[in-house]
Design goal:
Oligomer: single chain
Number of helices: 7
Shape: elongated
Number of domains: 2
Distance between the termini: 54 Å
Largest sheet: none
Length: about 160
């Protein structure tokens, strides 16, 4: 793939790749590293991307790179999301914070569904899991978010 094509893909999908990596890793520097490695992988290989499927391929590659990154370092203490990075309106900040407190496997499906707009079937392909697993994770994540947001509302 030529540099010009990769530059266009980076312009179009670089933020999406970065946000997914950040939602998995919760660390700005690690997310930047994964984002860079995804696009470098695209340069190094003679990868043929099907038209209209570029974003899905990049997000699948990102999810796999994040899994590898987490398993390689076995981090126990992750840094919180940098407060200077805001992906949503201030009215949605409470929800965003609750999503970021979810375990990575649940955070990823919520991010892909609600922030990226993918269907459950597409999420299953991106993450390399079954449709049933996606549905189960979505259900559990919603329950966790509901409980978390309810607990936060009761504290006020």
């Amino acid at each position: 793939m030529e540099r010009e094509q990769i530059a266009l893909l980076y312009e179009a999908y670089g933020d999406d790749v970065y946000r997914l990596a950040l939602s998995w890793l919760r660390n700005r520097q690690d997310a930047e590293d994964v984002c860079q490695s995804v696009f470098l992988k695209l340069m190094d290989r003679n990868t043929v991307l099907f038209p209209g499927k570029e974003k899905a391929w990049l997000l699948t590659c990102t999810a796999n790179a994040c899994k590898n990154h987490l398993s390689a370092f076995r981090r126990r203490n992750m840094k919180e999301l940098d407060e200077s990075i805001v992906f949503c309106d201030s009215s949605d900040r409470e929800l965003w914070d609750a999503v970021m407190r979810l375990p990575p496997r649940y955070r990823a499906v919520i991010h892909l569904c609600y922030y990226e707009g993918y269907s459950h079937g597409e999420i299953a392909k991106i993450l390399g899991i079954s449709l049933t697993a996606v549905q189960t994770r979505m259900s559990r994540a919603r329950k966790m978010l509901k409980k978390e947001l309810k607990d936060d509302a009761e504290k006020i």
